[in-house]
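Below is how a single chain appears once it has passed through the pipeline. First comes the sequence as given, then the structure the pipeline wrote out for it. We keep one example in the README because the format questions we get most often are answered faster by looking than by reading.
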Amino acid sequence: DFRGRAYPIPPHLSNVGSDLCRGLLQFAKSKPLGPRGLYWLKVHLANFAGNDKITFDERVKFVDEHMDVVRRSAENPFEERWWMGLEDPFQGLATCMEIIKAIDSGDPQSYECSLPVHMDGSCNGLQHYAALGRDKGGGRYVNMCAESKPQDVYSGVMKDVIRIVEEESKRELDFDTTDPDSLTKAQKIELKNNKAAKLLNGHIDRGVVKRPVMTSVYGVTLIGARAQIEEKIVEKLENAGYDVDELHREIFVACGYLAKVVIQVIRFHFTGAEETMEWLKKC
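Resulting structure:
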């Protein structure tokens, strides 16, 4: 496609297909697991069980503590249904089977495995910019630096955005707002931001900031970020009982304010990425 991504020709059985498809697929050539292969199979299974925010050693420990149910799932999946509660059950079941085969082989290091173990990047665009700019501060947020636990850039940005919006929503304005026409330009902006923060406070989560963060390194504009945020905020306000049609103008303004806050937080944490992008624009 226009991003340079290649897609499989088969419409059904492919590595970008459903959980069932991915659970069936294996590499054509198997290789010995080696000294760390079984370790990573266990990490892979723990990820399917929703334990992807703890350390790798803790994930392995989780699987070891559940080895009885892993074995029962592998040997009799119709009777033992534990695997069906995993996020991707068929891929999880395939991993259960592979772990048990490796253990039962008597020599897991020599056991030949062909099961793919998935690894995902953490906001790849920011990872590339952090690496290019040797930005340790930003790199830490996107798992480019050694940390005891995986970092989540979206949650990190979300926490700062929530703090800024909450502080603004509680701030008392030091001027009379009863006659907006008499306010200066700066006071009007202050009033607008304060009203926006009051409307948004309590309705911001990871999903609200994720897309703007993800697309920040691909040149997303303030208008684009506002539209991404508005889509989520409208949904949240509607679920909270607000009349989103009546508040259309207020929501539009509030999402513009929030887009600026999100971009401000991203620039604060990823100064290296910002400087590298600016340098590339000038080249």
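DSSP finds 13 helices and two strands in the chain.

See the next section for the split statistics.
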